Design the sequence.
């Protein structure tokens, strides 16, 4: 059937709208990128949108890389991402596996016990007191252990595990395998797509999180990158990064430093993004068809 | 006797799975039910030295203080309004984007738009808030641009009138593409013969959208709507925390940021535990009643 003229007009309008959407989504990042590469004083004099760096200078990046807080933040975040994601994956896989077994006593009771926590929770203060009581205050474990399992992720993983044929399980048992062997040698290798999705979601979560660090960490040496960023971007504290700049230059350089910091801290995700995108999307899809 | 024997064979066969369940159940008891136990301090005169169990009961005093306090109205209003605006503007935005994307026939272009629209979802809240602080400052990009049209500089983040708009619109910017995925997935499962039949009957693209696509994704919309209803009182404190300041408390301070300030910063644990409990109970009631209303209206439900 041929499109009517009205439909064609809509198609054109829609395409324009979508291009507009892309510009709105992308331009803030481009602006930040151009600004970070700009020469500080010409950037300050520049008005309005940037279509390329105003002058070209990598000084802001040098200041960022020489900043000890950023380096420590980066190291801490990497540690938290690796450790945290490993804990998440291990615990989530255990839970998902147990809940995916067809005939365990108490399985429904356990499921109920877990689902309740999705609709009712104790809240920030009791959790804070608990973490305090467990002696995890001001330690990285406060960021990693209390969030070991995301219930929603566990249910997604369980659904994936349930899709594995029971006969595989039966024949493995014939060969003398127990549940640990079945989980790690059969179920997990057969569920690599969902495992990949879980790793990505948990890892990005750890990379971007700042709230639990804000609540539980006092020691600046343990700050993750996001808390360092918060000081630089929100509290506007760039002074510590400029050791030998005069007062008048400080403001100008501070501006470009902020942008360079954004780029440096977001670069890993932006670079990996095109490769990882399909896994992210796949995760939403798996979640969507769970009911 | 018979039952004992089945339990024994079950244990023999499944012991490893039961062992696996131990850390998981322990985790839930400790970190999910533990805080529920700790909630009792909402009804106590809590002292850290005595601990949760030994502190004295004082009944509903903290609740009375909260309900009668000067901030109660403001906190409820801000929390509800921020969520309501997100529900009214943000929730349909993802559906509309999905419908518009669905109308694009060129696969490459469609995929390009999708890829770009997901991107902001992966940027941390700190960076998004940081970009907002910078772009919206007196000398920032936005003021430079509107200055061209002769508008006086506006200190967006320091004026309480702007907060809700900025909060909701930045939320849409960050989440609309990502939110649309789930609807696009739902659309992909719609039986193509339905479209053929509609075309046979002479339905235009608009009619097809109205009578095939929308009903097709209705169950997904309903479920996500219920989930959102439950969150009506749990606005994400993290972004508010990054964006607000004492100048904008009047429109920005929400229950969870208040709990953070009073509870963590000023250490009034028992009072803020009561505030948090109030918040959790209302959310729970909202989600359960939304679910039951929807259940009565249609066969869609969360549980």
Sequence:
């Amino acid at each position: 059937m041929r499109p009517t003229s009205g439909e064609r007009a809509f198609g054109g309008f829609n395409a324009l709208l979508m291009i507009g959407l892309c510009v709105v989504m992308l331009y803030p990042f481009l602006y930040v990128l151009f600004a970070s590469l700009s020469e500080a004083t010409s950037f300050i004099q520049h008005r309005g949108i940037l279509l390329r760096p105003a002058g070209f200078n990598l000084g802001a990046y040098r200041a960022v890389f020489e900043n000890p807080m950023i380096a420590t933040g980066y190291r801490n975040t990497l540690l938290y991402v690796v450790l945290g994601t490993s804990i998440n994956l291990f615990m989530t896989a255990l839970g998902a596996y147990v809940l995916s077994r067809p005939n365990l006593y108490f399985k429904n009771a356990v499921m109920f016990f877990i689902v309740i926590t999705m609709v009712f929770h104790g809240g920030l203060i009791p959790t804070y007191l608990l973490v305090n009581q467990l002696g995890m205050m001001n330690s990285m474990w406060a960021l990693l252990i209390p969030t070991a399992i995301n219930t929603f992720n566990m249910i997604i993983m369980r659904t994936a595990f349930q899709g594995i044929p029971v006969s595989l399980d039966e024949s493995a048992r014939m060969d003398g395998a127990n549940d640990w062997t079945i989980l790690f040698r059969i179920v997990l290798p057969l569920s690599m797509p969902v495992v990949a999705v879980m790793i990505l979601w948990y890892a990005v979560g750890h990379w971007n999180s700042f709230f639990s660090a804000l609540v539980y960490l006092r020691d600046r040496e343990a700050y993750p990158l996001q808390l360092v960023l918060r000081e630089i971007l929100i509290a506007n504290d760039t002074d510590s990064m400029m050791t030998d700049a005069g007062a008048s230059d400080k403001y100008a350089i501070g501006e470009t430093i902020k942008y360079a910091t954004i780029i440096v801290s977001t670069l890993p995700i932006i670079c990996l993004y095109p490769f990882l995108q399909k896994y992210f999307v796949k995760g939403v899809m798996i979640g969507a068809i769970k009911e | 006797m018979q039952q004992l024997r089945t339990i024994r064979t079950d244990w023999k066969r499944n012991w490893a799975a039961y062992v696996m369940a131990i850390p998981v159940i322990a985790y839930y008891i400790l970190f999910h039910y533990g805080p529920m136990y700790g909630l009792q301090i909402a009804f106590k005169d809590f002292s850290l030295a005595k601990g949760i169990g030994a502190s004295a009961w004082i009944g509903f005093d903290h609740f009375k203080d909260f309900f009668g306090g000067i901030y109660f109205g403001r906190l409820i209003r801000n929390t509800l309004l921020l969520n309501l605006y997100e529900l009214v503007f943000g929730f349909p935005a993802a559906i509309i984007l999905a419908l518009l994307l669905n109308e694009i026939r060129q696969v490459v272009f469609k995929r390009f738009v999708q890829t770009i629209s997901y991107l902001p979802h992966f940027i941390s809240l700190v960076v998004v808030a940081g970009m907002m602080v910078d772009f919206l400052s007196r000398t920032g990009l936005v003021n430079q641009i509107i200055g061209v049209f002769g508008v006086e500089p506006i200190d967006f983040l320091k004026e309480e009138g702007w907060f809700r708009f900025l909060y909701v619109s930045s939320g849409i910017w960050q989440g609309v593409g990502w939110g649309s995925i789930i609807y696009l997935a739902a659309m992909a499962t719609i039986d193509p013969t339905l479209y053929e039949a509609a075309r046979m009957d002479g339905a235009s693209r608009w009619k097809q959208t109205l009578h095939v696509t929308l009903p097709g994704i209705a169950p997904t919309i309903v479920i996500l709507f219920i989930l959102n209803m439950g969150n009506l009182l749990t606005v994400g404190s993290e972004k508010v925390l990054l964006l607000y300041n004492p100048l904008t408390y009047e429109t920005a301070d929400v229950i969870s940021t208040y709990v953070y300030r009073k509870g963590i910063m000023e250490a009034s644990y028992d009072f803020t535990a009561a505030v948090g409990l109030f918040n959790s109970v209302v959310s729970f009631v909202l989600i359960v009643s939304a679910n039951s209303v929807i259940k009565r209206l249609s066969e869609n439900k969360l549980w």
